[in-house]
Every structure is written in structure tokens, then in C-alpha cells.
Write a structure and sequence with these properties.
By secondary structure, the chain is of the alpha/beta class. Helix content is 42%, strand content 11%. It has a six-stranded mixed beta sheet with strand order 3-2-1-4-5-6. Strand 2, helix 5 and strand 3 form a beta-alpha-beta unit. Helix 3 packs parallel to helix 4 and helix 3 crosses helix 9. The protein is globular.
């Protein structure tokens, strides 16, 4: 959030009829000094906030919270996922918009390797994201087509804010392919039907508005595509959520990997 700089040279009384026009000799210098001090404090506060001070909610989450609800939710849920999946979190693939933020967060966890797939072109990638792309940790790939990974390449696959933009025609191919590259499970974060629809900018970027589907719709879809719920992981996740007072802002589904 940018702030308009304070101009200490402005003199309120020069135009005549101003609030301080009757006391130029004493009030104006004091007022100018005061404005400089206040401006300096605002600048320090702004810089400190940008560096992560004042209890920033998430590490490097500048736009995830506002634009992609469930990608931000993945970051909130990482400690819960760690408790639910344990050793299965050692090699993770995240698929979804703003995956650079999620991968960066996952890499800070001990004994966790992480990769990401950004399903759409990255327009304003920051230096950290560009570095992850150069290293091969993050790649841009259209998930409507088969993923460039061998079966069971990752222990756990986490998907957020990506399936909401796919029609059933593509979901029938994409979701089984995501399950294919996981060895121990897949976790899906998807929006509630009551969540706000995609912005106009997102429609042009993704080609269609997000379709928020109900839990019953997803359950039917899983059955139709022969995907099985991971009840053990779902139970552990629920228990860990209760202990941590974690209330998800997205729907979360746990599926088993293919045998």
C-alpha cells in the first residue's frame, strides 16, 4: 500500500485565509517540523511492515490472500498437514496459482522437498519466483494435458485454486493424472459455493470464471472417476484441526493414490 509523501515545505498560510495564516512566525515552523516527524514515522512503519514486521500473517503472501483464497489456505494448513500426513510430506508437489508462495513456505519445513506447477502464465513473478523457476522447482504447465512426471514421483500432491477453473470434461482427465503422480495421497483445496466468483481479470487469464462446487458434487465426481477417499488421512487432519483450533476457509478433500 503506497502512501503519499508529506511535503514539509508547504506553508498553509501563504494563500491567505488559511487556518494558520494568523500565526506564521510561530506555528508554521513547528507545524513543518511536526509534519516531517510524522512523515518519517509513516515511512518507517511502511518499510518495517514490508519487511515482515508487525506480525505479518504469512511469509511472502502479498497477493495470495486476496486473489487466490485456497492457495493462501494451503499455507495456513501446512502445520495441520504435517500432523496428518507425517513422513508423507517429505516430497510434495503443489499445483495451483501462486505456487511460488506455497513452495517457498513448504521449503522452510524441515525434511520437506517441494515442487510446484503454475497452471497459467506468470505475469508479475518476483525475484524469488524467478529463482524457483530457474532451479526447476516451479514450472509453468497446462494441467489440461498429462503432467511431465512419472507415476508416483511425489509422496503427496496438493492442489488449490486450479480445479475450480476446469470443466468436467477436463476434470475427468486432469484429476486422475494428479493422482497418478502421487504415491501416498492427494489433497484438494477448493472454494465453497458461497465464495465470490472470479474477478474479471481472472476470467481473462483463466479463460472462464471459477465454478465453486458443493461437497456433494465433488463426492459424486470422485465416485464416477473411481477415486477413493483417504478416510484415515481425513480423520487425522480433522483431529489435528480440532486440537489447533484450525477452521478452514476452503473445502478440503483427501484422496488415495492409485494402486
Amino acid at each position: 500500500m503506497s502512501r503519499r509523501p508529506v511535503n514539509p515545505s508547504r506553508r498553509f498560510g501563504e494563500s491567505g485565509g488559511g487556518l494558520f495564516s494568523s500565526s506564521k512566525s510561530t506555528s508554521s515552523p513547528i507545524l513543518s517540523v511536526g509534519l516531517v516527524v510524522v512523515g518519517g514515522l509513516f515511512l518507517i512503519a511502511y518499510l518495517y511492515r514490508g519487511s515482515g514486521g508487525f506480525g505479518s500473517r504469512l511469509d511472502s503472501v502479498s497477493r495470495v490472500e486476496g486473489d487466490y483464497l485456497c492457495s493462501g489456505e494451503v499455507q495456513r494448513a501446512i502445520p495441520i498437514l504435517q500432523k496428518a500426513y507425517g513422513d508423507s510430506m517429505h516430497k510434495v508437489l503443489h499445483v495451483g496459482p501462486d505456487t511460488c508462495y506455497v513452495v517457498s513456505k513448504l521449503l522452510k519445513e524441515e525434511e520437506t522437498e517441494a515442487w510446484g506447477i503454475e497452471p497459467y502464465d506468470i505475469e508479475d513473478a518476483d525475484s524469488n519466483c524467478k529463482a524457483l523457476i530457474r532451479r526447476g522447482s516451479v514450472r509453468v504447465a497446462d494441467i489440461k494435458f498429462p503432467l511431465p512426471y512419472r507415476p508416483k514421483s511425489f509422496s503427496l500432491v496438493i492442489v488449490s485454486d486450479a480445479l475450480d477453473y476446469l470443466s468436467p470434461r477436463y476434470l475427468n482427465k486432469t484429476l486422475p493424472d494428479l493422482v497418478r503422480v502421487s504415491s501416498e495421497g492427494i489433497v484438494i483445496f477448493t472454494g465453497f459455493p458461497t465464495n465470490q466468483k472470479a474477478k474479471v481479470a481472472d476470467v481473462s487469464k483463466f479463460g472462464r470464471a471459477a465454478k465453486m462446487r458443493s461437497s456433494s458434487w465433488w463426492v459424486r465426481f470422485f465416485l464416477q472417476t473411481n477415486l477413493e477417499e483417504n478416510e484415515a488421512a481425513a480423520k487425522k487432519f480433522e483431529q489435528a484441526s480440532t486440537k489447533s483450533s484450525y477452521v478452514p476457509r476452503c473445502q478440503i478433500f483427501h484422496l488415495k493414490s492409485l494402486n
